[in-house]
Specification:
alpha/beta; 5 helices; Rossmann fold; single chain; 5-stranded parallel β-sheet; 44% helix
């Protein structure tokens, strides 16, 4: 069974590309554009990791990260952020990567680091 990754973001185009990259790396992706649904989906599902995109406003990413850690302390978080936000999010997530358009390798590496290699 493939490991499931919960992928969340507000930008549809970025979400589609990111989810394709995650799937191509061998993971199953469950996705949402609705920040309010992230917590509900995470609570009900069995996920290897959660990825939160930089398209979600910083205050909302902070709140989501804190709440996810409260409801599922062992669930690894990967937060995508701007360079200026990196230090702030380091305390909230297992992996923090800088958003770079057209560059997907850091995301795949971060996911495999926190979730383990995909089960093919």
């Amino acid at each position: 069974m493939q490991k499931k990754i919960l992928s969340a973001g507000h930008n549809t185009a970025l979400l589609k590309v990111r989810n394709s990259v995650i799937q191509a790396a061998g993971y199953q992706v469950v996705t949402t554009k609705e920040a309010d649904l992230i917590l509900e989906i995470a609570r009900k599902g069995d996920f290897a990791a959660v990825v939160i995109c930089s398209s979600v406003p910083a205050y909302q990413r902070r709140n989501l990260a804190r709440e996810l850690k409260r409801i599922k302390p062992g669930l690894p978080l990967v937060i995508i952020c701007a360079y200026t936000e990196h230090a702030e999010f380091r305390t909230l997530a297992e992996e923090v990567i800088i958003a770079e358009h057209g560059v997907s390798q850091p995301l795949v590496e971060a996911i495999s680091k926190v979730a383990g290699e995909p089960e093919l």
